[in-house]
Amino acid sequence: MSTGSLPLAPSLQTPKLRRPKFFRHVPFYIVLTLGISFTLLPFIMMILSSLKTNTEVLRVPHFLPENPTINNYLTIFNDPKLPLLRFYANSAFVAIFNVTTTLFTSALIGYMFAKFAFPGKRLLFGWFLTMMMIPAILR
Asked: Which among 111, 139, 116, 115 has a CA at the least distance from the CA of 127?
């Protein structure tokens, strides 16, 4: 009987060379880094452009401002013609109204679908699901 067919003890086997886990994930990290760079670039450009003067913004685009200034922010917060607090109040009112209305009507419609049986219930439920899946901007 030959000993070649018997398995060797784990200590006698030749170890398999495997790359460390970090090197197996390097392509994934490169793709993630490129994705986050392309995602954040517009926000960084917007913040840097807010620190430029009007003439710098209208000239040939440069990434960094030559003379950084916070005058644009001072104008926004101190201009009496620009009621910033009113803008925030209007946005809060619209958001609260939309959330309250949506919660109320969704609860009523959900109760109707759960407790009542009526002709066309499946068709109407499918229509509601379809309308929720299609963004409002496309309707």
From this structure: 139
Supply 15's token pair.
Answer: 């170890």
What sign has the CA pseudo-torsion 75, 78, 79, 84? positive
Whether the CA torsion 22, 23, 28, 30 is positive or negative: it is positive
38-43, long-range: CB < 8 A, 24+ apart: none
Secondary structure class of 79 (helix, strand, coil): coil
Task: Please check the confidence at residue 4 and state whether its pLDDT lies above 60.
Answer: no
**DSSP letter assigned to residue 119:** T
Tell me which residue has tokens 């209208």: 58
- What is this structure's pTM? 0.53
Report the phi/psi class of residue 29: left, alpha or beta, with left for phi > 0 and alpha for psi in -120 to 50: alpha
Whole-number Cα distances in Å, 47 to 36, 37, 43, 88: 17, 15, 6, 21
